[in-house]
Amino acid sequence: MTNNSFEANARDNKTRAYDDCWLRLDGIKDSSFQKNYRRCLESVYCKADTRLAKTALNELLSGLTRLTGSSPKVVDDPESSCIILSILAFDKEIDSALATNEIAKLQPEGFLIKAVKDNKGSKIYITAKTDKGLLYGVFRFLLYLDQQKEIGKLHLLENPKNPIRMINQWDNLDGSIERGYAGRSIFYQNNILTTDMARVKYYARMLASVGINAIAINNVNAHKEETRLIADKIHMVKEINDIFRDYGIRVFLSINYASPIDIGGLSSADPLDDEVAKWWVDRVAYIYKNIPDFGGFLVKADSENRPGPFTYNRNHAEGANMLAAALKPYGGLLIWRCFVYNCQQDWRDLTIDRAKAAYENYHYLDGSFADNVILQIKNGPMDFQVREPVSPLIGTMERTNQMLELQITQEYTGQQRHLCYLVPQWKEILDFDTRAKGQGYPVKKLVNGSTFPMKHCGITAVSNIGTDYNWTGHYLAQANLYGYGRLTWDPDLATETITEEWIISTFGPKQELIDTISKMLISSWPIYENYTSPLGIGWMVNPDHHYGPSVDGYEYSKWGTYHRADFKAIGVDRTVAKGTGFTRQYRKDNYLMFENIETCPEELILFFHRLPYTYRLKSGKTIIQHIYDTHFEGVDQAIRLKEQWEKLNGMIDEKRFSHVLDRLKQQIDHAKEWRDVINSYFYRKTGICDIHSRKIY
Amino acid sequence: MTNNSFEANARDNKTRAYDDCWLRLDGIKDSSFQKNYRRCLESVYCKADTRLAKTALNELLSGLTRLTGSSPKVVDDPESSCIILSILAFDKEIDSALATNEIAKLQPEGFLIKAVKDNKGSKIYITAKTDKGLLYGVFRFLLYLDQQKEIGKLHLLENPKNPIRMINQWDNLDGSIERGYAGRSIFYQNNILTTDMARVKYYARMLASVGINAIAINNVNAHKEETRLIADKIHMVKEINDIFRDYGIRVFLSINYASPIDIGGLSSADPLDDEVAKWWVDRVAYIYKNIPDFGGFLVKADSENRPGPFTYNRNHAEGANMLAAALKPYGGLLIWRCFVYNCQQDWRDLTIDRAKAAYENYHYLDGSFADNVILQIKNGPMDFQVREPVSPLIGTMERTNQMLELQITQEYTGQQRHLCYLVPQWKEILDFDTRAKGQGYPVKKLVNGSTFPMKHCGITAVSNIGTDYNWTGHYLAQANLYGYGRLTWDPDLATETITEEWIISTFGPKQELIDTISKMLISSWPIYENYTSPLGIGWMVNPDHHYGPSVDGYEYSKWGTYHRADFKAIGVDRTVAKGTGFTRQYRKDNYLMFENIETCPEELILFFHRLPYTYRLKSGKTIIQHIYDTHFEGVDQAIRLKEQWEKLNGMIDEKRFSHVLDRLKQQIDHAKEWRDVINSYFYRKTGICDIHSRKIY
Question: Which residues of B touch A687 (CB under 8 A)?
Answer without folding.
Answer: 566-568
